[in-house]
Batch of 3 targets.
Target 1
Amino acid sequence: MTTATIKGRPRGFDRDQALEAALMEFWRHGYEATSIATLTRAMGINPPSLYAAFGDKRKLFSAAVQRYAQTHGDYGSRALDQPTARGVVETMLRLAATEYTDAHHPPGCLVIDGATNTSEASQDVAEELRAYREDTKHAIADRITADIQAGSLPPKTDAPALATFYAAVIQGMSTQARDGASEQDLQRVADVALAAWPA
């Protein structure tokens, strides 16, 4: 149990465990479909404790997304450790296939699917997740550009288009996982996608 306090009183729950529980609810149902009642039940706390510890549902969601990026969704940053653009893309695809179908958590990707069908009132949530996706896509494009400049990719390679293609594949893999695709299915998708890599 954490020793952090709220207004001088000991906080009677483990913040990390509560945040992980909230993450799972947002991942499973999406931002708008996840209610405060659902969250507090999953987190094992009451609404005042949620507001005191996390601010509100919107701030809790941002904290959950940050946790996701550092845990279940860290395959993107892990892939960027590879020395070549192709290595980055292949590692990202392979890890996504494994992570999206892991039976220990909801299928797919929170950053891809967490703001599906949001209303006008929640457009800031959609924009937050879009920014994560765009950052990853731009990081892939930067690595492709670096390899073009180094001479390991053809000079006429369209780095932004190639990065967008692989980003689209990864997003599609998330949807397929939510529709019941297995890891083996998604690894085959990765095989086909990698066949499009410039010679």
Target 2
Amino acid sequence: MTRRPARSRSRRRLAVLGLALSPLVLTACGAVGVHADPANGYLPNGITEESKQVEELWMGSWIAALAVGVLVWGLILWCVAAYRKRKDDNTLPVQFQYNVPLEILYTVVPMLMVGVLFYYSEVATQDLHDTSAEPDETINVVAKQWTWDFNYVDADVHESGQMAELTGEEGVEETLPTLYVPVGETVELQLTSRDVVHSFWVPAFLEKMDLNPGVVNVLQVTPTEEGTFQGKCAELCGAYHSQMLFNLEVVSREEYDAHMAELEEQGNTGLLPNDLNRDEIIERDQPLLDEEESN
């Protein structure tokens, strides 16, 4: 039987160590890319009043998980130290078939922990999905393969987007469809889809919501910070899903009104219809396809 060289064993250990550490390295790189903050558990910096609740739930969950981890690690180390094998002691430890109080403990305690986590998660979900407030602005966000349309309901204007062309060159962001919202005001986003299931996601909102054909989902947000932020579809929706991007501009009321006036001057008055569906397109194009096949 031949032994492997020490150098080969060392390389193998380094490879295993690299694989073990790679998730941590990749997580750190991703956190930097989205401007994550260690103070809120490496989440992206939330820019809405609602995002504070997400941050509190996230941090509370981490603190509870860390407390449980410290307790479990402490018990393991205590058992290792207290019940280690002694010198000149060849007797076996006392064997137990079962221990009813201990079994009840490690059954009931995890159930209580899950129940508490579920309770706070449900409270946060209900608050985030509460749409009873009277919005200052209502915007219909329409998803379609593979871009976005924005109907500004109160201003009665619209903006139609085109699919992004990811060339790898600078300036692509400027060609993306842009959603404008006023800072410091409650905005109601009425989310609809023209074809398949999509998902509206602005990472800086710390929440996302699906857009389903034939269904209107509503999301209310109150932005607290001006700036330009990235948005995207978070639901695999077809071949060009990765190019379904948009910009979010959080601006002052004056800039928002100016943009609405600009859309009106461009002739983008009225709201784009939501009733266009794939079945109608197929039925409309089918005679042409049949004619081409016959030729």
Target 3
Amino acid sequence: MKRRVAKFALISSAIASLFATELGAAASAGERGTPSHLNQARVAAVANHTHSNGTIERRILASHNDERGRLGLAPLKWNRDLEREAADWARELSRRGVLQHASRDVRNGTGENLWMGTAGVWNIDTMVGMFLDERKHYRHDQFPNISRTGNWADVGHYSQIVWRDTQEVGCAVHTARGNDVLVCRYWPAGNVWGSRAY
């Protein structure tokens, strides 16, 4: 278990660097107000499972909206187009065997949260829960001064989930090369330079 946790910590560190690079560029562009920016099943099953009975979708949405509700924020709605885009990118990342944020053009200006872990070990609640766990370092201030650690990327997944202006989310998981990859896309994107999450 310690190896898995260590692997996640290393991956999280890499994610943070990539996350900071991508969203830092988007946030500095000043595009606020525009569209600026699972493991119960395997990849083929996830899309079918989500569409057939919505269990995965409901669990992801509930995790996001429970936290938003706790803060008095409007709930997010599930967006099938964002889900399809997330599935395409999760498949690509699985093929590559790395985590890397999609370019803003590929993302159609949406926000993006990424997660990777050993296949079959983590359930969807734990995956999303790791985004939400960043709350312990969150400081309510203007972006990028939103982390008690001094590094906004330590809370960037969490702040995207609770960004007031974000209205829709779509997520997907793909499994390959011994890993599960979760991609969530958000519209409109959060983490806008000089703004508060809520």
